[in-house]
Design brief:
Layout lengths: L2 H20 L9 E6 L10 E6 L5 E5 L2 E5 L4 E4 L12 E6 L5 E5 L4 E5 L2 E5 L10 E6 L5 E5 L2 E6 L2 E4 L10 E7 L5 E6 L1 E5 L2 E5 L9 E6 L5 E5 L2 E5 L9 E2 L6 E7 L5 E6 L3 E5 L2 E3 L9 E6 L5 E5 L2 E7 L2 E3 L12 E4 L5 E4 L3 E5 L2 E3 L12 E6 L5 E5 L4 E5 L2 E5 L6 E6 L5 E5 L2 E5 L4 E4 L5 E6 L5 E5 L2 E6 L2 E3 L2 H5 L5 E6 L5 E5 L4 E5 L2 E5 L12 E4 L4 E6 L2 E6 H9 L8 E3 L19 E2 L5 E5 L2 E5 L12 E8 L2 E3 L4 E4 L6 E7 L8 E8 L6 E3 L3 E4 L5 E11 L2 E14 L7 H65 L4 H27 L11 H16 L3 E6 L7 H21 L5 E7 L3 E8 L6 H5 L6 H12 L3 E6 L5 E8 L17 E3 L1
Parallel strand pairs: 59-65, 66-67, 69-71
Antiparallel strand pairs: 1-28, 2-3, 3-4, 4-5, 6-7, 7-8, 8-9, 10-11, 11-12, 12-13, 14-15, 15-16, 16-17, 18-19, 19-20, 20-21, 22-23, 23-24, 24-25, 26-27, 27-28, 29-56, 30-31, 31-32, 32-33, 34-35, 35-36, 36-37, 38-39, 39-40, 40-41, 42-43, 43-44, 44-45, 46-47, 47-48, 48-49, 50-51, 51-52, 52-53, ...
Helix pairs in contact: 4-5, 4-7, 4-9, 6-7, 7-9
Length: about 1000
């Protein structure tokens, strides 16, 4: 480092120390940032008495109001109300054993262990006779030592045994236990002694025999430090015997002792706060909420946790600090820039000048003395340009102040071109000043940034787009057309000649090689509002905005154009890193600068912010944690494979990640495999799904720090959502089967209907054939026989011929009537008196008269009243049988018998003719339609047909019909009984 930078650094350090003394609320160059939590943040009470950290990286906090688990964002409280094993809510000490067990010492409630999610109480029944547990310590053998108000105990192989009062160990009240690297066990309280193998050595402190020991620690150099109610004592590593000396300057009770990774000794006192000791010197960190320090702990992320009487404090090494200046409470820090000599100019309600001699407020002559200076610029000739709020521009050169005439009163930016012209940006346009003239452009535009690039082009960022001037001439470029509606608040030219434009609400743009690229929060930016863009020697961009300061490697930004799936590693600096506020200032340039020694400075609303070398180590990805799973409003487990009953398909998952340093940088990606099509990135720590169909799913959660987006941790939960019965495969198969059966049934029904219609057509055809045969053909046959008889007798007996003719006429009328009834199926209402016997008798007489074959009719029983159709068919059956007999059998006599039984009508036709073979008749091809018609009529009416005949032995035909009510005749079963054919 050159001499000028060295002087500047020393001067800054002196100024900052003076400022810190003037304002004890901040300590800008301490190198530590603090964060404080109170009850309003979720703590049950503000008295913090103990710390421990388990393997899963949760921080456990013992308070006077319960045990607290902390992941960096939320507190989960365990107390006597929700945890039965905790008989008392006041937790005094904590210990994480090597097997992962968390041991909890309570004030009056005994000892409690926590392992695998379960709490267990250890009390008198286990050998612990005193419930006020003050300290817990595990030695190199794995035994756990327990210090109480009345006794020293050891937990060995699952059993607790008392160790004081025997084997030379004095009865004790123990408040501190410590095992050093030589495996000596130090026990402090009253009395103070050390167990060295089998030896018990009682010790005395400079404070006297009644000095109560509260804390013990061995430093990395071997020094034994002892904190007591009277102060701090130490025993050098090479001291002879056990001789302690008092550490001067500390007079209050030393409650805690802690050594950091860098060898710093942190001393927690009652009344004097937290004191640091390093390299033989004492100092104090930023002021804590209380000077009563009850506990301290070094966490896995190198955070120092401090428990006070009035809150929880986290101290972490930070490269960032808020710089305190005089009257800063009434300041609005807008610009900051470095002068040629290394001094800093800070524009605020006053103009501050930070030099090697300290901080001063320059005194300018009127009218500048009563005017607020917004921005400062030193040109190449050494002239200092001062832009004011309301009074325009002033030039300060060789101790003389000169006002620049004809400029707008509100100045926002300066720039110098290659010809020495000074460009002045105002809220009403911009001008170019030379010693000879002042030229102004775009008078109605509000200018936010000015830049002269290496080619001499002047770029003007405005609230309404971008302007470029080349040799004083306006040019039209692709970025100008694209950005014409944007608010351009920052312009930067990188070392490769690329131009970067920061907008007020649309992110970052890059113009290079004729191509304009854009970057927003979708690619990983911390904010789409950009106030200033700075680039350090390593090619890292430092960007300020309304939510803090972020740093991004320029190469990482360029990688996005080559790999669209690449996530920007962005480091965001916020309140957890030492910022008093995350609200930076922008809109007036320069809104930040990089000093010659590499420090980054930004103006903030709470003061200038300085960023030095980052001392933080690279940490692993924060462990992702799924805290809660709700299925249809029911809370379920968060591990293993979960089985959900059938429900509405509503799933809620609450998750986070364990990061104790800062949760502002955490980002999450989640996916419900089997439901989501891809990953969703979010900062929200809760997701709700609705209408999830039944099936097997896996919820995956990825957590990462935006500073290391490629380093992720993952948590997942598997679950099976059972379906309703109507959503199961067998139900769908059953429905498909039923549907197929229904379709097949409908098809069968349609086919049966078609067949029935076809059968009905055939039946109707057969019926018409029978009717024609039994009426028209038979009638015509009878008429034909009468006419032939008349022709043969006309010449012999005219009277007989006339009688035969009258019979023929009567037969023709009767045949016509029967045919008409048969064709039109005329119905006539039945009567109470049956005419069946009369009709059969008339038919027999007519057949006998026409054939000269005696046909006798006999009846037995009372003829019932039957349906006219049935009556008609009975007559047709009897007539057909009689006519067949007289026509074909050549009988000597035909007998027609009608028997009327209770439920049956029987007709028998018997002749003594030639007979025949029945099998031959029914196998013929339609030559004997009469018998077939008789059988069909009988079967259609649900009757029974029997035929008995043999050649030469005559024929007997018997038909029987069931008697149905007239109203039921239309519903007679069509299924016919099979005919009986008897030889």
């Amino acid at each position: 480092m050159n001499r000028r930078c060295l002087v500047h650094t020393v001067a800054l350090a002196w100024v900052l120390c003076v400022s810190a003394a003037a304002n004890p609320l901040v300590a800008p160059l301490e190198g530590y940032a603090r964060r404080v939590w109170h009850t309003q943040d979720g703590l049950p009470e503000e008295t913090i008495q103990a710390f421990a950290q388990t393997r899963d990286r949760f921080l456990w906090i013992g308070t006077s109001g319960g045990l607290v688990r902390f992941d960096g964002a939320q507190f989960v409280v365990f107390d006597r109300d929700n945890t039965p094993a905790l008989r008392e809510s006041s937790i005094f000490c904590l210990l994480t054993a090597r097997d992962g067990t968390l041991w909890i010492g309570t004030e009056g409630g005994g000892l409690v262990s926590y392992q695998h999610g379960r709490f267990r109480l250890w009390s008198k029944a286990d050998g612990l006779t005193n419930g006020y547990v003050r300290v817990l310590r595990q030695d190199h053998t794995g035994d756990t030592w327990i210090g109480t108000d009345d006794g020293l105990f050891r937990l060995h192989s699952g059993k607790i045994e008392r160790r004081d009062g025997r084997d030379g160990v004095p009865l004790s009240s123990i408040h501190s236990i410590y095992e050093d690297r030589r495996h000596r066990l130090w026990a402090g309280g009253f009395p103070f002694f050390v167990l060295e193998g089998d030896r018990v050595i009682q010790l005395a402190l400079p404070g006297g025999p009644n000095d109560n020991v509260k804390s013990i620690l061995e430093g990395r150099d071997g020094t034994i430090w002892v904190g007591s109610v009277s102060g701090l004592e130490r025993m050098a590593a090479n001291a002879r015997g056990y001789r302690f000396e008092r550490v001067r300057g500390i007079h209050s009770t030393v409650r805690t002792l802690l050594e950091g990774n860098d060898g710093t000794l942190w001393i927690g006192t009652i009344g004097e706060g937290l004191i640091r000791y390093k390299n033989g010197k004492f100092s104090t960190p930023p002021k804590l909420p209380s000077n009563t320090i009850l506990s301290s702990f070094l966490g896995s992320e190198n955070n120092i946790w401090v428990g006070t009487q009035t809150g929880l404090v986290r101290l972490n090494r930070s490269a960032i600090s808020t710089f305190a200046l005089p009257d800063f409470a009434d300041a609005d820090f807008g610009t900051i820039t470095q002068d040629r000599d290394g001094a800093l100019w800070v524009g605020s309600s006053h103009l501050f000048h930070i030099t090697a001699n300290g901080v001063e407020i320059p005194k300018f002559p009127a009218p500048l003395s009563q005017t607020r200076v917004r921005t400062v610029f030193r040109d190449s000739s050494g002239v200092l340009w001062l832009g004011t709020e309301g009074r325009g521009v002033f030039r300060w050169s060789a101790g003389a102040l000169e006002a620049v005439a004809n400029t707008q009163p509100y100045i926002r930016a300066f720039a110098e071109d290659h010809q020495g012209g000074i460009w002045i940006g105002t809220d009403g346009g911009y001008c170019r000043w030379t010693p000879r003239a002042l030229g102004c452009f775009e008078p109605h535009e509000s200018v936010r940034a000015l830049l002269v690039d290496r080619s001499g082009n002047v770029w003007v960022g405005k609230d309404r787009g971008l302007t470029r001037l080349r040799s004083g001439t306006f040019t039209a470029d692709a970025p100008i057309a694209r950005l014409q509606s944007e608010k351009i608040w920052a312009i930067h030219e990188d070392s490769d000649g690329g131009l970067w434009f920061g907008t007020r609400s649309s992110g970052l743009f890059r113009w290079r090689d004729g191509k304009l690229s854009s970057y927003t929060t979708a690619q990983g930016l911390a904010s789409n509002s950009i106030y200033q863009i700075l680039e350090d020697r390593r090619g890292t961009f430092w960007i300020s905005g309304p939510n803090g300061i972020s740093s991004i490697g320029r190469s990482d930004l360029e990688n996005i154009g080559q790999n669209h799936g690449y996530l920007l590693p962005v480091k965001l600096y916020g309140a957890s890193d030492g910022l008093e506020t995350t609200q930076m200032y922008g809109g007036v340039q320069p809104a930040g600068c990089i000093t010659s020694d590499g420090e980054i400075w930004f103006p903030g609303t709470a003061g200038p912010v300085r960023i030095g070398p980052d001392p933080g180590p690279s940490l692993p990805a924060p462990p992702a944690v799924i805290y809660r799973v709700m299925a249809d409003g029911r809370e379920v487990a968060t591990s293993g494979t979960l089985d959900f009953p059938a429900g509405e398909g509503k799933l809620e998952v609450q998750y986070s990640a364990i990061q104790l340093r800062s949760q502002d940088r955490l980002r999450f990606r989640y996916q419900l495999e089997g439901f989501d099509r891809g990953w969703t990135e979010t900062r929200v720590r809760r997701v709700v799904y609705a209408n999830i169909p039944p099936g097997h799913y896996r919820f995956r959660l990825l957590a990462f720090d935006i500073d290391r987006p490629q380093t992720v941790s993952e948590a997942d939960v598997l679950f099976n959502w059972r379906p309703h019965f109507y959503q199961t495969h067998w139900f769908f198969v059953l429905c498909a089967s039923l549907l197929a059966a229904l379709i097949w049934g409908i098809h069968r029904m349609r086919m049966q209907q078609a067949h029935a219609r076809f059968r009905a057509v055939l039946e109707e055809r057969n019926r018409l054939a029978r009717e024609m045969h039994d009426t028209l053909i038979q009638g015509c046959t009878g008429v034909s026989a009468l006419l032939e008889a008349m022709a043969s007798t006309q010449h012999d007996t005219p009277e007989s011929g006339r009688e035969l003719l009258d019979c023929a006429r009567l037969q023709i009328r009767k045949t016509a009537d029967e045919s008409r009834r048969a064709v039109w199926n005329l119905r006539q209402s039945g009567s109470e008196h049956s005419e069946l016997c009369r009709l059969l008798e008339q038919m027999a007489q007519q057949a006998s008269f026409g054939s000269n074959v005696p046909v006798r009719f006999e009846s037995s029983g009372k003829a019932p009243a039957v349906d006219p159709l049935l009556e008609h068919d009975l007559v047709m059956v009897g007539r057909e049988a009689v006519y067949n007999a007289v026509r074909h059998a050549r009988p000597r006599e035909v007998r027609l018998e009608a028997r009327f039984e209770a439920s049956t009508i029987r007709l028998r036709v018997i002749d003594d003719g030639c007979g025949f073979d029945p099998a031959a008749v029914f196998s013929s091809n339609g030559e004997h339609f009469g018998l077939i018609g008789i059988r069909e009529r009988t079967e259609r009416l649900g009757g029974r047909f029997e035929l008995r005949s043999k050649p030469g032995e005559g024929t007997e035909i018997e038909v029987s019909f069931p008697i149905h009510p007239q109203s039921d005749f239309g519903r007679i079963a069509s299924k016919a009984s099979r005919p009986r054919i008897l030889s």
